[in-house]
Sequence to fold (438 residues):
Amino acid sequence: MKELLFKQVDNSSLIIFRIIFGLLITLEAWGAIATGWVRRTLVEPQFTFNFIGFDFLQPLPGYGMYVYFAIMGLLGVFVMLGFKYRWSIVGYTLLWTCVYLMQKTSYNNHYYLLILLLIFMCIVPAHRYLSLDVKNNPKLKAISMPNWVILFIIGQIWIVYTYASLAKFYPDWLDGSFPELLMKAKAHYWLVGDFLQRGWVHMSIAYFGILFDMLVVPLLLWKRTRMAMFIFSIFFHLFNSIVFQIGIFPYMSLAFSLFFFPKEQINHLFLKSKAYYNSAEIKTPPYAPMLKSFFCVWFLIQLLLPIRHHFIKGSVFWTEEGHRMSWRMMLRSKGGSASFTVKHTETGKVERVKLEDYLTPKQRRNLVKPDGIYQFTQHLKKVYAEKGIPVEIYGRIKANLNHRTPVYLVDPKLDLTTIEWDYFFHNDWILPQPEDMP
Fold:
């Protein structure tokens, strides 16, 4: 075990990854400002659907969130340059995690993956070469790193891809019907829009998606298939970037390849002036027992968290319970309609809630998700309580999966002020999904 984890290997792959990673997280932060993501998601809304239990995390007022993301981008530059590396990467990790937890309107599994990668970058010695930290303190300079760095990142990536592949084994994916829905939304794309509407393209997306996610890590690990898999990965991730426009993550995924190629090859291609380390010394640090315990807990959580929905009653597609942080990426389309009425319990007055007074158009999509219903109801209840008006709240909320006929998600006769949210088990106030839904 000591040799497996603490054998010293060349660190060229980690150094180059740090530079690419720093650039990408800088683009993520400053790009969020430039594209209007910060404005739409955190500045304009008067209410945010934060992760339940993290209500204390609220967007800063005024121009605060623009400054917040500008600082994140600056920290990303520092990571790339290796300047005050530990402070910079820890700072970015905390700021990004807070953004992730304070809103779910723009939820994306990739945002969660970035948190995991940031934690990884917090604990690895990524600043020990080609960094301003080394320039300022030459004693930091090192040309090697412990082997666990490579094992950790490959293990994490393998888990992500494997669960993403397994999640696709459901009828609407396997028969190509959901890929068809995905591509219909891209029909207006210049040059490729019509091409993406062909049936064989939908089936290719379905099965190449399963096979790629399942095999990419094993085939990158095997010398005979590594280069062919890498070339196909470039096509795969560029396709995702162009068609689905999912930000930095296709490029981050390509950067992972650095850890699969021979260390000497990475050193020769990117850091020719750096001496190649091949002494294979074993250096067991004094904190080795704590590090091993961390690895055990980390990977146990990573293995169990994505399957927790199997232990919760109902379909995860319908209830959303156990959906997040489980690598269930682009698997279903969920739409519907929602309207709310408020009944004043003292006077009997009934009024219809004008959703546009409370939520942005994008936020209203959360109202066909059970936790969104719960949170919005709690917000309405609080608004009326501040006015000293006790109320009952009712919702006519219909949801559909993959363009099926919409059906009620909750009983329209249920007073939604009485419901509670159970984070770990099924919430019985959610109506059962129809039999024709996955």
